[in-house]
Amino acid sequence: MNILITGLHGFVGSNLVAYLSHGYTIYGLDIVAPPKKGVAKTFSWDDLAAGLVPNVDAIIHLAGKAHDTKNETEADIYFKVNTGLTKKIYDYFLNSDAKKFIFFSTAKAAADRVDGVLTEEVTPAPVGPYGESKIKAEEYILGNLPANKQVYILRPCMIHGPGNKGNLNLLYGVVSKGIPWPLGAFENKRTFTSVENICFAVNRLLTDDIKSGIYNMGDDEALSTNELIEIICTVLGKKARIWRLPKGLMTFCAKLGGWLRLPLNPDRLQKLTENYVSSNKKIKKALGVTEMPVSARDGLVRTIDSFKSGSK
């Protein structure tokens, strides 16, 4: 099977290439086109327009503008990249011989906040240009579903794995310095997504006859921030320093931080302590499995261990 992967130089793309390159011929599509191990050849988007990309059996669309937690990115950039590029590669797919298309969206396209458990049946209500640009891409795809091809929209929660440089790395940096976690009184639950589980699911979507549609991606077990800190400390061989200060006190401190423009403000407090649990029952049923290959805890241990090894 020949596969075209867009955005293959990113974290998920690099892991997919390493996972799939042993059984498939992989071509890349990216802004830059340097040689990459496991990839037959990488093309530019100009090459795609010029008809230079060879015929493939499947397309995995990863290229996109990631969520900017500092809110420094102009809104139109998200729509230009996340919506515009998706339309471009999907139109190419519709007119090609490829039979499968996998689009990596995000859980944030469905909901910015979750009460209960997020399922694929939720009415999308994204907040902000990141989620809004992704849902626009989803709507374009769903409005143009071909009868003779299979199309999958994946909505992963926070993705982690060895080498990841996202928010988990930032939390690791704080905990590894021995700084106490003052928000222990907030017992939240969050769904994470191991990149190994993503690779497993994508491989099965490529090989099996699975119904087109939207699928949440996540590890089986949702964990609290307190549990995550305990995992980090276990890997580091340290005792977890979790302070369970009164919620009212921390809420007041956050309001004060908002007035004084300190790191802890009401918005950040909300993000650090909110629940965000996503169900992966639909994807597991489609794949015919009762559990994902990698547990949330095992995946996070591997992720944190890579941070530890990288800091030596």
Task: Name the descriptors.
single chain; 312 residues; alpha/beta; Rossmann fold; seven-stranded parallel beta sheet; 14% strand
Summarize the structure.
The chain has 312 residues and is α/β, with parallel strands linked by helices.
Question: How much of the residues is beta strand, in percent?
Answer: 5-15%
Measured as a percent range, the helix fraction is 40-55%
Tell me the structural class: alpha/beta
Total of helices: 11
CATH structural fold name of the domain at 2-156 = Rossmann fold
CATH class of the domain at 2-156: Alpha Beta
Helix and strand pattern: EHEEHEHEEHEEHEHEHHHEHH
| Mean pLDDT across all amino acids | 91
Please count the beta strands (DSSP E, at least 2 residues each).
11
The rounded Rg comes to 20 Å
How would you explain this protein's 3D organization?
This protein is of the alpha/beta class and 312 residues long. The chain has a domain at 2-156: NAD(P)-binding Rossmann-like Domain (Rossmann fold), CATH 3.40.50. It has eleven helices and eleven strands. 37% of the residues are buried.
Break the fold down into its secondary structure elements and pairings.
Blueprint: E1 2-6, H1 11-20, E2 25-29, E3 41-43, H2 45-49, E4 58-61, H3 75-94, E5 100-104, E6 117-118, H4 129-142, E7 150-156, E8 158-160, H5 167-176, E9 192-194, H6 195-207, E10 213-217, H7 225-236, H8 247-260, H9 266-273, E11 277-278, H10 281-287, H11 296-310
Parallel strand pairs: 1-2, 1-4, 2-3, 4-5, 5-7, 6-11, 7-10, 8-9
Helix pairs in contact: 1-6, 3-4, 5-7, 7-11, 8-9
